[in-house]
Amino acid sequence: MSDSPYADLDRPPLHEAALRGALVRPGGLWRDVRVVRETGSTNVDLAAAAQEGAPEGTVLTTEHQHAGRGRLGRAWTAPPRSGLMFSVLLRPAVPVERLGWVPLLAGVSTANAVRRMTAWSEEGDRFFPEPGDRPRADVAVDARLKWPNDLLVGERKLAGILVERIGGALVVGIGLNVGLRADELPVPTATSLAIEGAPLSDRAPLLRAILRELETWYREWTSLDGDPETSGLRPAYKDLCATLGRRVRVELPGGETVEGTAGDIDQDGRLLITTDQGRERAVGAGDVVHVR
Ligand code: BT5
């Protein structure tokens, strides 16, 4: 990465003080926002901070990750400032069996923020809406969730989420491709907002939108003891989920594969699959492939 943060004018840096000023307020969820120039993994750093007692609402974001983590030992790779890479620390006081909803809550929040920030105003004259504008849903980037929480546009991956449990804390890590160009794709199945026709060069408004959406959902869900129904989380997730109704192949963590049709999300956030033998299987973890 060049020494000057302004070397790439299409990719302006994130400003810690401005983000703090916009997000940290008395009584709010976000307690601290840090921007580091470079690190291995924001999830690893925040997990260490969690073990040392960092408070809920700590946010760590970086301009460049050189050992970004995916699920199951996979990697998240992206050039410096080509996207958002950040982690937040949560300590949800809800019954333990409901913690499985956190990755889905993070997915709903990210998808909603992306959809909102990439919509044109109803007058069609501005690229993302000002507060009070009514977005035109027809031209928003149609970001949807592949269960549990990959953010897809069509079948291409725009963002990935990794939630890790550290004692009573959860570290929620989000990687989202923003200005990434076609010649920079880490894998052919990736996409970015720029590639999808929404070239937001400044990532800060998008980060603020995701964190605000996350705060709203998290507050509602925790205040209702993690109830996915009364909080509206399960219906919201189902509305955004591209997996429901699809034929899927799921690779389970133990190596087993389940094939069938994805029908529903149960009360624990698991994917319900009807197999070709007519059996219903509830899947709590695994990799889903949308079969054509
Ligand atoms: C994920 O894992 O999608 C979770 C990614 C979470 C990344 C964030 S960045 C901030 C925080 N700190 C971290 O260290 N991690 C989190 P998974 O479902 O396992 O997907 C990983 C797979 O996605 C890889 O094996 C590649 O195939 C693909 N991939 C890697 N980089 C990508 C990118 N930039 N865009 C799209 N796909 C990518």
Give average pLDDT, whole number: 93
Are there runs of 5+ residues with pLDDT below 50, and where?
none
- The CATH class of the largest domain, by name, is Alpha Beta
Total DSSP E strands: 14
**Helix and strand sequence:** HEHEEHEEEEEEHHEEEEE
- SSE-based structural type: alpha+beta
> Taking Cα atoms only, what radius of gyration do you get, to the nearest Å?
19 Å
Strands across the major sheet, in which order?
1-2-3-9-8-7-6
Named CATH topology of the largest domain: BirA Bifunctional Protein, domain 2
Helix content: 10-25%
**CATH homologous superfamily of the largest domain - what is it?**
Bira Bifunctional Protein, Domain 2
Q: Given the structure, what is the number of helices?
A: 5
Q: Give the names of the bound compounds.
A: biotinyl-5-AMP
Walk me through what this model shows.
- By secondary structure, the chain is an alpha+beta fold.
- It has two domains: 16-238, BirA Bifunctional Protein, domain 2, CATH 3.30.930.10; 244-290, SH3 type barrels (Roll).
- 21% of the residues lie in helices and 26% in strands.
- The chain is built from five helices and 14 strands.
- The protein has helices spanning 16-23, 42-51, 102-117, 204-223, 233-240, and strands at 32-36, 58-62, 83-90, 120-121, 135-136, 143-146, 150-153, 156-166, 169-177, 247-251, 257-265, 271-275, 280-283, 287-290.
- Strands 1-2-3-9-8-7-6 form a seven-stranded mixed beta sheet, sandwiched between helices. The protein has a five-stranded antiparallel beta sheet with strand order 13-12-11-10-14, with no helix packed on it. Strands 4-5 form a two-stranded antiparallel ribbon.
- Helix 3 crosses helix 4 and helix 3 crosses helix 5 (233-240).
- The longest helix is centred in the last third of the chain and has 20 residues, at 204-223.
- The radius of gyration is 19 Å and the shape is globular.
- The mean pLDDT is 93.
- The chain binds biotinyl-5-AMP.
- Residues 41-43, 68-72, 74-78, 85-87, 150, 157, 160-162, 173-175, 177, 186-187, 190 line the site of biotinyl-5-AMP.
- Biotinyl-5-AMP binds at residues 41-43, 68-72, 74-78, 85-87, 150, 157, 160-162, 173-175, 177, 186-187, 190.
